[in-house]
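go over this:
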Amino acid sequence: MSAAVEAVLRGGVATGVGSWPGTDPREAAATVVGELPGLAHLVELPERGVGADLLGRGCALLVDLPFDTTPRGYRFAARPGGVARHARDLLRADLDALEEAWERAGSPGIGRPVKLQVAGPLTLAAEVELVNGHRVLTDPGARRDLAESLAEGLARHAAEVAKRLNAPVVLQLDEPSAAAVLEGSLPGTSMLDSVRPLPEPEALDLLDTVIRAQSAPVIVHSCAAPPLALFRRSAAAALALDVAVLRTADLDGIGETLDAGKLLVLGLVPSTAPAGEPGWRELAARGVRLVDRLGFPRRTLAERVLVSPACGLAGATPEWARRALDLTADIARAYTEEPETLEAE
């Protein structure tokens, strides 16, 4: 990892995944900026409806690819529809709220990064339809156009945010559909129409088309069981994973990720309130067990690991969302200050 990336993206930091409960962007921004001083993020508020969710925000950043919706979801269109205008209006409102919260926090400014999230090219290609109703993923030219459009739009978005906040930017590509894209498990337009699996080299090319176009470090994230080999081979600086979905078979891939010089963002805090609320030490133990089993020193937790909730918090109550950030911050602090004293069980 280059010195320039290390200056912006570092271990021992608490951050969020993306989504947040409620519909008030100012309240959400103020909470996240206040609770996550090391790496706050631009929240998504999907409760506001169409255009405010992960796919709507991703489509809003596309350049020269107009879109609208159908009863089945988002679809490319001959000209921008009302949904496209609404999605971009929501994004502008969220940016205004983040800028206000940033300034109220005392102009953290230089040296304090901010994270932006967007659906990655594989997930957008899997979930957005062409005009004819087929998934973008089924058309090689269309998926290439989508990746290039997203790369350009995301670079513009990052530049605008960096200028408005006078802060370095970290980018996160959310790829919850990546595994389904590789496995060929996405349904087609009918029972007789299947979507073929995308070969890993082609998937990697789409992912890296977006990543390599960015001047900011990029995290690749999935709340679902991740295709670790694909993510590890990408140009991303870090991988963000829900620890609860990792299997024993994934351990070698996690170790290879660290050996490759990439950082990990470990999702350790439940994204909705559990039946019995765990303490931060119990949750921190999951990360400790992981590095111990991999044979890495405990200082890896401070140097190479960031901490986050397991997934977005849109499905949580406002009370648990705030509590989740508190727990996340407590774990990151412990990894930095006292990793050797933490229990692994």
Remarks:
- The mean pLDDT is 93.
- The two ends are 31 Å apart (CA to CA).
